[in-house]
Amino acid sequence: MPQRVVHPGLFTAGNGNGPALVASRCDACALLHFPATPLCPWCGGESCTEVAAGRRGRLHLWTVVETAPPGYRGPVPYGFGTVEIDEGLRVVARLVETDAARLGRGQRLELVLTQVGRDDDGTDVIGWAYAAVSGESTTDGAA
User: Fold this and answer.
1) Distances (CA, A) of 44 to 11, 31, 57, 120
2) Whose CA is closest to 20, among 47, 49, 57?
3) Between the chain's N and C termini, which has fewer beta carbons within 10 Å?
4) Cα separation of 23 and 57, whole Å?
């Protein structure tokens, strides 16, 4: 089945290390931002270097979306939340888990590629999401 990415430049399938977000690090202030841009949103610096980031992180906030928003063509329900990636930046992301009771603050997550929809011609739309890291618990003691 044919595939396309939801938006070019947001993530990479990785080079043997698994998928990663394509972020930028400012050459002037060294702060990270996502998505990648040539200009720094923090200090206005005009030179940023693309870096792979976000392979792992911890869940900060979450919910489960049970009704498809207008124009959305993917499966529901789906998890949605804020993930603090190991590099220290918080990103808004889809979550693979669809049961809010199985999610917890501080839960270790890893970036995965997943189908987020299908075009009219049958092309699968591939995006990124975070899935629980098996065998690791949250920082607040929840499972």
Assistant:
1) 23, 11, 27, 41
2) 57
3) N
4) 15
pLDDT at 102 over 80: yes
CA dist list (Å): 53 to 34, 50, 74, 101, 141: 9, 9, 25, 28, 26
pLDDT at 138 over 70: no
Maximal CA-CA distance, the chain: 46
Rg of the chain over Cα atoms, rounded to whole angstroms, equals 16
Q: Are 69 and 104 in contact (CB under 8 A)?
A: no
Q: Where are the domains of the chain?
A: 3-132
Both structure tokens of 29: 């202030």
Tokens 């063509």 -> residue: 73
Contact call for residues 117 and 123 (beta carbons, < 8 A): no
Owner of token pair 């869940």: 59
**70 near 105, Cβ under 8 Å?**
no
Contacts of 54 (CB under 8 A, 6+ apart): 20, 21, 23, 34, 83, 85, 86, 87, 89, 91, 111
pTM of the model: 0.89
CA dist 38 and 24 (Å) reads 8
